[in-house]
Design a protein that fits this description.
The chain is an all-alpha fold and about 525 residues long. The protein is built from 18 helices and two strands. The longest helix is centred in the last third of the chain and has 41 residues. The protein is globular. The two termini are about 25 Å apart.
Length: about 525
């Protein structure tokens, strides 16, 4: 039987905390790599001659591959060694970064970004699993996960800033080289600071299950992303249906295998399933707000991408603070109550965003967005700890992969569904306010999006263009208001369910805590290997 860890587990030492700093840099890099390309896209597109379709694939292929391979790579780490998979991913990530930086064609860059996504999928679940090995004490593990998440989320703000500085001084390829030194550092220090852990009796990797998981996740994620961009198109819906069909096949196969790629018993654990649900709906409801706030700063306020990123820094700063404080406070009060209190702050922030209009100051937007982010801290950090901490040690990689997959899919689906609602509100309101003197083709562009309105206004007389932009920006604000209200109302429901279903988990500072809620250890024995 696998040993169940208790609140008296040994304390992590200096070696573990230094090793954590390396893992934090890795998480920061993966996050930066997602956002840094936003500023570089116009430059590389002009240099490589990338068309609109190629630009979309350059942007999206990384996320597709990252999400698609998370489960496979998390399970692979459990089977052959988490440190080994992490270091392999770091080496591939570094090589692919160099290839991307010196790409000579759109196809070469798309291929490099795809490899970067696959390599990125090895880093996140292996990192969470290794943290669970390095920090067996619940209080230390919760703090370690929160530090790692703070670094990972910091990349969302640092990415555009770093990209802006690099592009001002170097060529577009330099944004991909930022991560190379970090990966070299991981390859050098990883074997020294990070322990190895693998399940020696896990059985062979089922390649058919790998294929089914990719056939389920990739079409579904593609369909969801296209749904956000182009609405209800037959091809988008077909992709989602195909993904669901293969997903059912994947689930059926896992139930029959003695050594499945994904142990479905993880999902039968109340703590794990509830925590995953909280992460999914949290990112579903709040992830789209980041997307809309970014658009507001650039399209309504007219800020450059770099200045917009700087205005978003306060929200990221308070979110990182919330990440770091949450596990410390959870040592004294039950995590479920802390999650509920945090979501109260998020709901308050969303309600402030429902009041954004043409006369509102930029400070009001920043404060509302900051409150939304601040309140999300307990939900994201404590549920990640619950998921990894409630899984058997030999399944920590798979649990980490499930956690990250729920976040990625929730984020994509939130943008697709709630983003579409915001777009529908915009189109409904703008249709009745377009000045009669606006040419027909320009009016069509205006009805499509705020971006189309900005482009159309450039070709109109100043007074007409100004009136058109005022109407379009007011319509966009109405969409932001509606989405914020829907998110606030539904987030209250998430808070109620989280408190109700997770209140049995005790504060991590108590000697008896939630780890007795682990899945019964009926899995094969595992082997700790010397580092």
């Amino acid at each position: 039987m696998t040993n169940i860890m208790t609140g008296n587990d040994k304390q992590a030492g200096t070696k573990e905390w230094v090793g954590l700093s390396v893992l934090v840099l890795t998480g920061l890099l993966v996050s930066i790599d997602i956002f840094v390309l936003v500023l570089a896209l116009p430059y590389l597109s002009a240099d490589l001659g990338a068309g609109s379709v190629e630009q979309l694939w350059i942007m999206d292929i990384y996320g597709f591959m990252l999400t698609g391979f998370l489960i496979t790579m998390g399970t692979l780490g459990d089977r052959i060694g988490r440190r080994k998979v992490l270091l392999m991913g770091a080496a591939v990530f570094g090589i692919a970064s160099v290839t991307a930086a010196f790409s000579t064609s759109p196809g070469m860059l798309i291929a490099s970004r795809a490899i970067l996504g696959i390599a990125g999928a090895t880093l996140v679940p292996s990192t969470l699993a290794l943290i669970s090995n390095m920090f067996q004490n619940p209080k230390q593990r919760g703090l370690a996960i929160s530090i790692w998440m703070a670094g990972a989320m910091g990349g969302s703000a640092i990415g555009p800033v770093v990209g802006g500085m690099m592009l001002e001084n170097f060529w577009w390829g330099s944004v991909f080289l930022v991560g190379v030194p970090v990966m070299l550092l991981l390859l050098i220090l990883g074997p020294i600071l990070l322990p190895e852990y693998r399940n020696t009796n896990a059985g062979r990797l089922d390649l058919a299950s790998v294929s089914l998981s990719l056939a389920a996740i990739l079409p579904a994620v593609y369909g969801i992303k296209e749904l956000a961009k182009n609405g209800l198109q037959p091809m988008n819906m077909m992709a989602i249906v195909v993904g669901c069909v293969f997903g059912l096949g994947f689930v059926q196969r896992q139930r029959k295998l003695a050594s499945p790629l994904l142990d479905l018993r993880l999902l039968t654990n109340r703590t794990i399933s509830t925590a995953m649900g909280g992460q999914f709906f949290g990112t579903f409801l709040m992830g789209v707000i980041m997307f809309l706030v970014t658009q507001y700063l650039q399209l309504v306020e007219g800020l450059t991408p770099l200045r917009a990123a700087l205005w978003m820094l306060p929200a990221v700063a308070v979110q990182m603070t919330s990440f770091l404080l949450s596990p410390l406070i959870a040592r004294r009060i039950r995590p479920a109550y802390l999650i509920g209190i945090g979501l109260f702050f998020s709901v308050t922030g969303l309600l402030l965003l429902t009041q954004i209009n043409a006369t509102a100051s930029l400070t009001s937007l920043v404060v509302g967005y900051a409150l939304t982010n601040f309140g999300a801290g307990p939900l994201m950090t404590l549920t990640s700890d619950m998921i990894v901490g409630s899984a058997p040690p030999e399944k920590a990689g798979s649990a980490g992969a499930l956690s990250q997959t729920s976040v990625e899919v929730g984020f994509a689906l939130g943008i697709a569904v709630l983003g579409s609602i915001g777009t529908a509100v915009y189109r409904n309101q703008i249709s009745g306010t377009i000045p009669a003197m606006v040419p027909f083709e320009a009016a069509l562009a205006v009805r499509d999006s705020l971006v189309g309105a900005l482009e159309a206004a450039q070709n109109l007389p100043n007074s007409l263009g100004s009136a058109l932009l005022t109407s379009a920006r007011n319509a966009f604000n109405s969409g932001l208001n509606m989405v914020s209200m829907i998110s606030a109302v539904l987030l209250i429901g998430v808070a109620i369910f989280a408190v109700a279903l997770l209140r049995h988990i005790r504060p991590s500072g108590e000697t008896e805590h939630e780890q007795n809620d682990r899945i019964p250890a009926v899995l094969p024995r595992t082997e700790h290997e010397p580092s």
